[in-house]
């Protein structure tokens, strides 16, 4: 690939130590690697996949490295990671489990990420020795074919990357920067110390920016988490660029990591606007979901912090004036509360007023969001970090009722139903207020409800599209790649070398003293 630089600009002037490749339009083309712990089907994984696809569409070479990924048509992973759209490599997953007897998940997650990191660094190191006579026949070329993400060999080499995008866990950031000499963009979905499973569920309904009440259990947890939290703050600060998924998360980040004195950049997640707002025909076996009854839809995981009960209670109040109304509560059950034996897979014989749809498929989700009888989405979590479901609803032309806290305050625009800019309603988590909001939406004329839906579509296209995500991620990656000062000249790297040197010197002197005796 030839290097073409913008007119009247030399590469040394723009990106001093790095020789970036440019396309014919003068845009930089980067080699970008995503380092993600376990590539499943959660919201963080959806963001990583969307960002990778968006960057790839903008002409960059993108590869994903993960500790866990399921291949095959029935794998619990996103289609783009299974159908060849993205190059996914699964490595570093055989040494450490995901948990120990259901506990110590964060410790195991950090160890698994470090295993992934060292496997990645080893493959990168092999590239630098691949031309040596003894290594040339041993090392697989970077273009060595593979059939699945699990088809990885310790003999494979990796060509250098311009930027690494790390998310969720920051423990590997210093190693990737100092040992691999890589520029790092860290995407902080939310500080991990506020996501601990041991945190009481009731706290999830309170503002995470506020101090937590004192409790003995909380103090014990604090002692256990203290070194882990200190590690998270220190390693997060080593990234070249730090991104967050919302202004709300940015505020939590600043309060949680006050010692870093850094302001993260907001890069919103996205949805594929072209995949929503179209007529969807029911898949075989899903016809029973269709109904002419006016329908409210709630999509969330079934866990306490999602506050599904708020939507159910508000629906019960609103139904007093709208007898024909029905509610579909869809999502994935919490394995700790439900057993597979207790979940029925048989459709109901008579249409229920409230339907709990567990393990909703993607085709069922598309059908419910696009069906003409669906009138609005109820999004009940308080202080949600971002919340992708309201975007999916707005992209489908549905008004949204959401809590007036967290990420939804940045996605759902509420200027009153009389305002042409409104895309939904934001209310405090109070069932009476929500019931009134439901009634207000139901009493809108079909034309006005459609106008609210169209405004939602436009808002998603303007601010939360895949193209916008790609643009913002590209800017962050280019900013990181263009940092002029080499990593080896940074103060932190010098301190590391001094620490290692002093340690080796002291160790050598100790061994020599023992042998001398």
TrEMBL record:
This is Alpha-1,3/1,6-mannosyltransferase ALG2. Pfam families: Glyco_transf_4 (PF13439), Glycos_transf_1 (PF00534). Its main location: endoplasmic reticulum. Residues 291-459 form the Glycosyl transferase family domain. One of its GO terms (cellular component) is endoplasmic reticulum membrane. The chain crosses the membrane at residues 496-516. It is an enzyme of class 2 (transferase). PANTHER family: ALPHA-1,3/1,6-MANNOSYLTRANSFERASE ALG2, ALPHA-1,3_1,6-MANNOSYLTRANSFERASE ALG2. InterPro entries: ALG2, Glyco_trans_1, Glyco_trans_4-like_N. Pathway: Protein modification; protein glycosylation. It catalyses: a beta-D-Man-(1->4)-beta-D-GlcNAc-(1->4)-alpha-D-GlcNAc-diphospho-di-trans,poly-cis-dolichol + GDP-alpha-D-mannose = an alpha-D-Man-(1->3)-beta-D-Man-(1->4)-beta-D-GlcNAc-(1->4)-alpha-D-GlcNAc-diphospho-di-trans,poly-cis-dolichol + GDP + H(+); an alpha-D-Man-(1->3)-beta-D-Man-(1->4)-beta-D-GlcNAc-(1->4)-alpha-D-GlcNAc-diphospho-di-trans,poly-cis-dolichol + GDP-alpha-D-mannose = an alpha-D-Man-(1->3)-[alpha-D-Man-(1->6)]-beta-D-Man-(1->4)-beta-D-GlcNAc-(1->4)-alpha-D-GlcNAc-diphospho-di-trans,poly-cis-dolichol + GDP + H(+). It is found in: Endoplasmic reticulum membrane. Keywords: Endoplasmic reticulum, Glycosyltransferase, Membrane, Transferase, Transmembrane, Transmembrane helix. Belongs to the glycosyltransferase group 1 family. One of its GO terms (molecular function) is GDP-Man:Man(1)GlcNAc(2)-PP-Dol alpha-1,3-mannosyltransferase activity. Gene3D superfamilies: Glycogen Phosphorylase B. Mannosylates Man(2)GlcNAc(2)-dolichol diphosphate and Man(1)GlcNAc(2)-dolichol diphosphate to form Man(3)GlcNAc(2)-dolichol diphosphate. Residues 41-273 form the Glycosyltransferase subfamily 4-like N-terminal domain. Its EC number is 2.4.1.132, 2.4.1.257. It comes from Leucosporidium creatinivorum. Signal peptide: none annotated.
